[in-house]
Amino acid sequence: MKVYISADIEGVAGVVHGDQIGPQGGGEYQKARLQMTKEVNSVVEAALALGASEVLVNDGHANQRNILIEELHEDALLLAGSPKPLAMMEGIDASFDAAVFVGYHARAGTSGTMSHTMSGCAVANIYVNGQVMGETALNAALAGYFGVPVVLVTGDNRLTGEAQGALGLVETVTVKDVIWHTAAKCIHPRKVLRMIREAAEKALSDISQYNPLIIPGPVTIDVEYLRKAMVEMAARVPGYTQVGELTLRKECADYLEAYRWMRMMVVG
Fold it and tell me: How high is the pLDDT of residue 233?
């Protein structure tokens, strides 16, 4: 069994504010990235205990240099640094049996903790075949393109509800309940680690019950920006159709092409 882990930080236990998710936060950021690493380790440990032959961890947040490699389980492989061609999903391919999303957040326009889609400073919404999708669905569909099911998603209660709506049967771990965009009722980090380990064991012990999220081609993808300046910057890339003052569209042969175009068009 090969397991793929995509990790973000906004959905990690105890993380509620922008000061905790980047170097500008100093000690608060260091605490958050350590918890991010520990939550990933909970999945790694479960996978290895169930006989996984490989666990690949992709650091998907911001500069993608957040996970502390010296604290990561020594039998996991880490994809770190940016840019990566597939960003949060770099390294995914058909050789994996299951994918897990750790520390994810709700999509833009919802009341989740630090909710956004791909870029909080640039993107209002992303639509696939007319349906609004957040990072969970967008990334799960890329795993699905390769036939890989997402079996576990962790984050706040808005995110886990979003994941269930997008993926159907999927294990989830709610690490905090949203109060405000930058406030939440948080479960103790050590308890969260146990919860994630148990959920990962459950999910990975019977992967066959979970279905990949497959979006067959052709695929229409729209990126709706927050400001006109963002549209003007993105419009330098040829091959799109402008379908609104703030929205660019691409008709693609398949979902992989759509995902690659979307990542190219999202700045910040």
Answer: 87
pLDDT one-digit tens code per residue, 112-123: 999 999 999 999
SS3 letters across the chain:
CEEEEEECCCCCCCCCCHHHCCHHHCHHHHHHHHHHHHHHHHHHHHHHHCCCCEEEEEECCCCCCCCCCCCCCCCCEEECCCCCCCHHHCCCCCCCCEEEEEEECCCCCCCCCCCCCCCCCCEEEEEECCEECCHHHHHHHHHHHCCCCEEEEEEEHHHHHHHHHHHCCCEEEEEEEEEECCEEEECCHHHHHHHHHHHHHHHHHCHHHCCCCCCCCCEEEEEEECCHHHHHHHCCCCCCEEEECCEEEEEECCHHHHHHHHHHHCCC
Phi, psi of 249 (to 5 degrees): -125, 145
Catalytic residue set = 116
Judge contact between 81 and 61, C-beta under 8 A: no
Rounded to an integer, what distance in angstroms lies between the CA atom of residue 216 and that of residue 43?
A: 30
Rounded mean pLDDT of 220-241?
92
What does the alpha-carbon distance between residue 144 and residue 164 come to, in Å, rounded to a whole number? 15
User: Can you give the pLDDT at residue 267?
Assistant: 63
Per-residue model confidence as pLDDT tens digits over 183-203: 999 999 999 999 999 999 999
Task: Indicate the pTM of the whole model.
Answer: 0.97
